[in-house]
Design a protein that fits this description.
This protein has 419 residues and is of the alpha/beta class. The protein is 36% helix and 15% strand. The protein folds into 2 domains: 242 residues, Rossmann fold; 161 residues, no CATH class. It starts with a strand and ends in a 5-residue tail after the last helix.
Length: 419
């Protein structure tokens, strides 16, 4: 298992690539590569390890720099840890998924491609993490899970709590043993509230959204690659309202002429599901599938009020029609339908979580658009030692807004304040 070391200003980066089973339960099914980068500060050698599990699914780990600081929390964490940036399987340099026509999916029929993608969930990511931890010779490490990375951490706590010295979660306390329909119905209600709050702040934008939706219905809103944007797809710009400074970004976008290159490029950058990271769309709903099939739950649970009012925006609500209209995702259409009918395995086990003797510090964002507050607090109550920080000061991307969130969580975990 080769490693390479390189140096950036203030950082030492050690990269490693391991061969991992595609299916840890069936090693004969073949292998994939899993890539991780160990980041240390100037005095980092010998410090304990913290592994970062990023949001998604389908997004690679951040590429670290110290000047400027990326990600913003990195310098604070390096004061106490060596940070392991794991490219979750299927992303970055971990046998990435780009298109159905490229390796590793090339040559497989739709059923074979769908079967392959069923192995890119939290359970197998945790198995990969365990291989990396063992390679590093760490008896235990701490995990920092953002959003989907927090969901993955909950599975980690369910199956390998003995490997964790602690866990930090930011917007990552998923619902446990709730029907997927209930989760999506709740997030639709949150988005109704966020839409109305947005129009109270920017009243004129409601008519502008109505106008643009009408233009979408006529096929007159077009992306730089020539794709026409449907009404349902345009609605997903509402996901910006679950981030900071998303409301401002949306307001500035709506102020542009829809025929301008600026509008087209900014709209493309504002849509949550796109071709650069196809897994985010293709396996997105499986993130909430705890032992069930998804069957396009985001689409099915759209309230009539939203269907009748185009100014009520959506969030991470995937529409089946996306795979017909997005030219970068169209090749995955049959695969996505097969995955929507797949009966996913159970990820979270309440009895095991209740026995997970691991200190957990969790940031719970009261108005979180993607991970509802009520379900998060229920899940926190399942854990024997979960110290929650509930705040209305941040949206779902609070971890990327500076150092306050990570500082607060580390103080909860360790019992001491950062000076």
């Amino acid at each position: 298992m080769p490693t390479t070391t390189e140096h950036l200003p203030g950082l030492t980066l050690t990269s490693l690539t391991i061969d991992a089973p595609l299916n840890h339960a069936d090693p004969a099914a073949g292998t994939i590569e899993v890539f991780a980068r160990v980041v240390t500060g100037e005095d980092g050698g010998g410090k304990p390890y913290l592994v970062f599990l990023q949001g998604g699914p389908g997004h690679e780990a951040p590429r670290p720099t110290l000047v400027p600081m990326n990600p913003p929390w990195l310098g604070r964490v390096l004061a106490d840890y060596q940070v392991v940036m794991l490219d979750q399987r299927g992303t970055g340099r971990s046998t990435p998924i780009s298109s159905p026509a490229q390796a590793p999916l090339a040559g497989l029929d739709a059923r074979g491609q769908a079967d392959y993608l069923t192995h890119l969930r939290a359970d197998e990511i945790v198995n990969d993490a365990e291989l990396v931890r063992e390679f590093l010779g760490a008896r235990q490490w701490t995990v920092l899970g953002q959003s989907f990375g927090g969901f993955t951490t909950l599975h980690y706590l369910s199956v390998h709590p003995e490997s964790l010295a602690g866990a930090l979660l930011t917007g990552g306390l998923s619902a446990v043993q709730h029907p997927i329909e209930d989760v999506y119905a709740t997030t639709w209600q949150i988005m109704i509230e966020k839409s109305e709050a947005y129009y109270r702040r920017f009243p004129a934008d409601r008519e502008r959204v109505r106008e643009l939706s009408m233009l979408c219905g006529r096929g007159e809103v077009v992306l730089p690659n020539g794709d026409a944007v449907s009404v349902d797809r345009f609605r997903t710009v509402g996901h910006l309202l679950g981030t900071q400074p998303g409301a401002e970004r949306l307001h500035y976008l709506l102020g542009l002429d829809h025929t301008s290159a600026g509008f087209r490029h900014d709209l493309a950058a504002s849509l949550p599901f796109e071709g650069r990271n196809p897994l985010y769309a293709v396996i997105h709903e499986s993130s909430y599938a705890d032992g069930v099939a998804t069957r396009w739950a985001g689409d099915r649970t759209m309230p009539d009020r939203v269907r009748e009012d185009v100014t009520l925006l959506g969030g991470e609500h995937l529409h089946r029609s996306l795979f017909a209209e997005d030219s970068d995702l169209a090749g995955f259409a049959e695969v996505a339908d097969l995955l929507a009918e797949h009966e996913w395995n159970q990820l979270y086990f309440p009895d095991r979580l209740a026995r997970a003797d691991v200190p957990v510090a969790a940031a719970v964002y009261h108005g979180d658009a993607y991970v509802p507050y009520g379900y998060s607090m229920e899940t926190a109550a399942l854990l024997p030692d979960c110290r929650t920080w509930v705040t209305s000061g941040y949206e779902h991307n609070g971890l990327r807004m500076g150092t306050e969130v990570i500082d607060h969580l580390l103080s909860l975990l360790t019992g001491r304040r950062w000076q």
